[in-house]
Design a protein that fits this description.
The complex is a heterodimer of chains A (115) and B (109).
Chain A (H helix, E strand, L loop, with lengths): L3 E4 L2 E4 L5 E7 L5 E7 L6 E6 L6 E2 L6 E3 L9 E3 L8 E8 L10 E2 L3 E5 L1
Parallel strand pairs in A: 2-11
Antiparallel strand pairs in A: 1-3, 3-8, 4-5, 4-9, 5-6, 7-8, 9-10, 9-11
Chain B lengths: L2 E3 L3 E5 L4 E8 L6 E6 L6 E6 L3 E5 L2 E6 L4 E6 L8 E8 L5 E3 L3 E6 L1
Parallel strand pairs in B: 2-11
Antiparallel strand pairs in B: 1-3, 3-8, 4-5, 4-9, 6-7, 7-8, 9-10, 9-11
Classes of the chains: A mainly beta (115), B mainly beta (109).
């Protein structure tokens, strides 16, 4: 079982260009998340989806959009990249049930550099 | 505001014991996670506490005091492979994870 896959592994992008980071999970988890991780800061939630067809904004959603057409895929799009979006991006998923103890499983990450 | 505090970096000796502390101030509390993250890799789950007390899992234990807004991760019999960052995360009232910046643990022979 692959778990969660992300593509690409890394990317260098010119400022102003658009890009979609792909994320696919095969665990049939209903919830999926996009985080960015920057040196000295904790993981920050960009967008999330509790179930297919719904999405929500996290702590730092500006400049990013997501869609959740089905259970498995949760792509993250940067419409017009800026250098401050240089970061490592992690996709995660979890099953949602009552209570807060739903472990999140993480993909391997995408390292994005915007020049 | 919401805040998770952890030491930035700690150093310990192989074979020893180390305690990594985490204090939190969040809007609501629905549990606390500890994750391990090796350099260049994804975070992986270590433990989850929702009730006060100590949870032991092999060489790793995690403690929670909700009244004090405090948790610690205890690592025993340290091995070189334990060199990693350790992330504390609190589940808030919206069931979202609020993450600390992580503690980089350096193990020396």
């Amino acid at each position: 079982t692959a778990g969660i896959t992300q593509a690409p592994t890394s990317q260098i992008l010119a400022a102003g260009r658009s890009m979609t980071l792909r994320c696919t999970q095969d665990m049939r988890h209903n919830a999926m998340y996009w985080y960015r991780q920057d040196l000295g800061l904790g993981l920050r939630l960009i967008h999330y989806s509790n179930t297919a067809g719904t999405t929500g904004k996290g702590e730092v959603p500006d400049g990013y959009s997501v869609s959740r057409a089905n259970t498995d895929d949760f792509p993250l799009t940067l419409a017009s990249a800026v250098p401050s979006q240089t970061s490592v991006y992690f996709c995660a998923s979890s099953s949602l049930s009552s209570g807060g103890g739903n472990e999140q499983f993480f993909g391997p990450g995408t390292r994005l550099t915007v020049l | 505001g919401q805040n998770i505090d952890q030491p930035t970096e700690m150093t310990a000796t192989e074979g020893a014991i180390v305690q990594i502390n985490c204090t939190y101030q969040t809007s609501g509390f629905n549990g606390l996670f500890w994750y391990q993250q090796h350099a260049g890799e994804a975070p992986t789950f270590l433990s989850y506490n929702v009730l006060d007390g100590l949870e032991e899992k092999g060489r790793f234990s995690s403690f929670l005091s909700r009244s004090k807004g405090y948790s610690y991760l205890l690592l025993k019999e340290l091995q070189m492979k334990d060199s990693a960052s350790y992330l504390c995360a609190v589940v808030d009232s919206n069931y979202q994870l609020i993450w600390g910046a992580g503690t980089k643990l350096i193990i020396k022979p």
